[in-house]
């Protein structure tokens, strides 16, 4: 068994036993070190709030959240539009705005110069990114293709465990009064889609869409579809 395979196996074992943020941070921090990186960061973008787990210096992590750097972070920006893992550093990243240039300069003050990021897509526009980062001298002891493949698989495992065990601040499924199809119909109603349009998107009949929306409206004690959408969004059952 290679060192990379051993690191991945130990990482998965650690995720199985992790049940809180401390456990998840320890697992990812150890995995990052074994792949030749100094830090890890996980950002989960889901209502009602951004979820951040990282081993970055606490002052940088606090500044990142308080200043809402996720809105200007070019790594996050690239991850939002990419389906594949990518490596990055200040030389290779496009930094078209002054705010992004300042962001990377500020990160460099904490020793953060390069890394590798895996975009993770979820349903209803949910999105996450898993990153391993290091300084200028960050070295990876395995081949780039093998490392990226392992990193992508590790990121998916991490996201799945964090989402299931920490719930990213969402209402738990067993607490949600709506079925999956009712949530889908309300989601598209919230996006301004008429019922025939929703039916086409979901591959069902308009009559079925009406049925699910009426059920959802009744369950939420709403008098109108708009009120049902607003109530579902407020409870975190769909994205607003």
Description:
The chain is an alpha+beta fold and 240 residues long. 52% of the residues lie in helices and 14% in strands. The protein has helices at residues 3-17, 21-34, 58-66, 74-81, 98-109, 144-166, 180-190, 195-202, 206-219, 225-234, and strands spanning 39-46, 49-54, 86-89, 114-121, 127-134. Strand 1 (39-46) and strand 2 form a beta hairpin. Helix 1 packs parallel to helix 6 (144-166), helix 7 (180-190) crosses helix 9 (206-219) and helix 8 (195-202) packs across helix 9. The radius of gyration is 21 Å and the shape is elongated.
CATH topology of the largest domain: Beta-Lactamase
| CATH homologous superfamily label of the largest domain | Transcription factor LuxR-like, autoinducer-binding domain
Number of domains: 2
Number of helices: 10
| Fraction of residues in helix | 40-55%
Note the gap between the termini: 47 Å
Low-confidence stretches: 169-175
Structural class computed from helices and strand pairing: alpha+beta
Percent strand: 5-15%
What is the topology, as strand order, of the major beta sheet?
2-1-5-4-3
Q: Mean pLDDT, nearest integer?
A: 87
Question: Which sequence of SSEs, written as H and E, runs from N to C?
Answer: HHEEHHEHEEHHHHH
Name of the CATH class of the largest domain: Alpha Beta
SSE layout and pairing:
Layout: H1 3-17, H2 21-34, E1 39-46, E2 49-54, H3 58-66, H4 74-81, E3 86-89, H5 98-109, E4 114-121, E5 127-134, H6 144-166, H7 180-190, H8 195-202, H9 206-219, H10 225-234
Antiparallel strand pairs: 1-2, 1-5, 3-4, 4-5
Helix pairs in contact: 1-2, 1-6, 7-8, 7-9, 7-10, 8-9, 9-10
């Amino acid at each position: 068994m290679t060192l990379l395979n051993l690191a991945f196996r130990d990482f998965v074992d650690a995720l199985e036993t992790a049940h809180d943020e401390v456990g998840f941070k320890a697992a990812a921090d150890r995995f990052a070190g074994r792949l030749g990186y100094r830090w890890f960061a996980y950002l989960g973008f889901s209502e009602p709030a951004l979820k951040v787990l990282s081993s970055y210096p606490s002052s940088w992590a606090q500044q990142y959240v308080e200043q809402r750097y996720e809105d200007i972070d070019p790594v996050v920006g690239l991850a939002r539009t990419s389906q594949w893992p990518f490596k990055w550093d200040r030389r290779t990243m496009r930094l078209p705005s002054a705010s992004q240039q300042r962001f990377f300069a500020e990160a460099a003050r904490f020793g953060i110069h390069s890394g590798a990021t895996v975009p993770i897509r979820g349903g209803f526009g949910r999105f996450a990114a898993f990153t391993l980062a290091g300084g200028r001298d960050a070295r990876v002891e395995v081949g780039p293709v093998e490392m990226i493949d392992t990193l992508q698989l590790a990121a998916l495992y991490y996201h799945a465990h964090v989402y299931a065990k920490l719930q990213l601040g969402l209402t738990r499924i067993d607490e949600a009064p709506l079925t999956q199809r009712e949530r889908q119909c309300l989601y598209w109603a919230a996006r301004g889609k008429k019922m025939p349009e929703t039916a086409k998107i979901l591959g069902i009949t308009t009559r079925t869409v009406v049925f699910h929306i009426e059920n959802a409206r009744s369950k939420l004690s709403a008098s109108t579809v708009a009120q049902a959408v607003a109530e579902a969004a407020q409870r975190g059952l769909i994205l607003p």
